[in-house]
Amino acid sequence: MKDMGMGTSMSFRLPSNGLALWRVFLMRVELKFYQPIVLAILFHFFRKLAISNDALIFIQQHQWQVDLSTFYNNTALAEALATIDESPAFLMMNKHAVNVTLNWLCNVVSFENVHNRLILIAFDTDSYETLKRAWPNLHVLHWKIPIMDRRFSAGDGRYQMFQLFRSNLCAYLASLGRDFWMIQSDTYWRENLFEIVDPKLMLNDDENLLFDQEGSDGLLAEMIAGGNYFIKADRRSVLFFNELSRRLLTYYSTDNNIMGGLCSYRYAGNKCSFI
Q1: Fold of the domain built from segment(s) 65-274
Q2: Is residue 24 very low, low, confident or very high in pLDDT (cuts 50, 70, 90)?
Q3: Is 141 left (phi over 0), alpha (psi -120 to 50) or beta?
Q4: What is the pLDDT of residues 223-236, one digit of tens each?
Q5: What share of the chain is helix, strand, coil (3-state, %, to 5)?
Q6: What is each CA distance from 264 to 222, 236, 238, 246, in whole angstroms?
Q7: Phi and psi at residue 113, in whole multiples of 5°?
Q8: Going by C-beta distance under 8 Å and a sequence separation of 6 or more, which residues neighbour residue 260?
Q9: DSSP E strand stretches across the chain
Q10: pTM summary value
Q11: Backbone φ/ψ region at 88: left (φ over 0), alpha (ψ -120 to 50), beta
């Protein structure tokens, strides 16, 4: 060090160990700031991981209740199918979805030939009896699955079971050579879907699967919603839904996302179109 007033100069350098300490201090400050965010992300990740793991364990333990053989052995289903000349439309519910189903049935009662082609599947006694009292002339099947009488929501084990049931039902119907509709009662019909959507006009000769869309623009226009769809029965359709069932048992995913993937590379020769 030299005196500045006498033409001297002064310099100061942080020792190397001091620089390291300063960096550690800054890192701690940053970590302290981001710690709540990181912890929230980790909590959400492990929570989703636990939910997915529980759902897969649940569906694998109870899959026998919705096995393909249960459809072939159900005489009530065969009898209901025999009474419907056109493509039947299937709707499934438990007691927690009865009210919305009743509202939907009232909504479409004036539409020609909608009630006539419906086959409603009730997973518990309460929903079956309620529907039969309200609409005694409808085809209502009491398909008792004890684990399915509770409320379920997207992502949990019972919802995955619902998707597996529907997929196996689709595979069964396609194996019979019966074209069919899958519908949901949470969709409000302003018009008769069976009149404004004619599969014969909307499907080309080599297309066999007709799905609803998440939206009408951009990427949403190519994404399957999975609430309402029409299936033209053939061997390709059987393979499509057999593969969907296999993946539902193996992967934690929604059926519409899996179907979208299968459609994208035309699994087993299947060709999809959109409503």
Answers
A1: Spore Coat Polysaccharide Biosynthesis Protein SpsA; Chain A (3.90.550)
A2: low
A3: beta
A4: 898 889 999 999 99
A5: 55, 10, 30
A6: 9, 15, 17, 18
A7: 60, 30
A8: 222, 223, 224
A9: 89-93, 118-122, 139-142, 180-182, 209-213, 224-231, 272-274
A10: 0.83
A11: beta
Helices (H) and strands (E) in the chain, counts: 10, 7
Q: Note the pLDDT of residue 155.
A: 76
Structure-token pair, residue 79: 């009898």
* 138, 101 contact by CB (below 8 A): no
**Domain locations in the chain?**
65-274
Looking up tokens 């002064």 gives 10
Q: Burial letters for 73-102: b for 16+ Cβ neighbours within 10 Å, e otherwise?
A: eeeebeebeeebeebbbbbbbbbbbbeebb
Token pair listed for 227 = 């609430």
pLDDT tens by residue, 98-138: 999 999 999 999 999 999 999 999 999 999 999 999 999 99
Round to the nearest angstrom and report the end-to-end CA distance of the chain.
Answer: 84
Give the strands of the sheet with 180-182, arranged side by side: 139-142, 118-122, 89-93, 180-182, 224-231, 209-213, 272-274
d(CA 224, CA 235): 21
pLDDT value at 50 more than 80: no
DSSP code, position 93 = E
Q: What is the DSSP string of 17-64?
A: HHHHHHHHHHHHHHHHHHHHHHHHHHHHHHHHHHHHHHHHHHHHHHGG
Cβ burial, residue 264 (10 Å; 0-12/13-18/19+): exposed
Neighbour tally for 242: CB within 10 Å: 18
In the block, residue with structure tokens 């299968």? 262
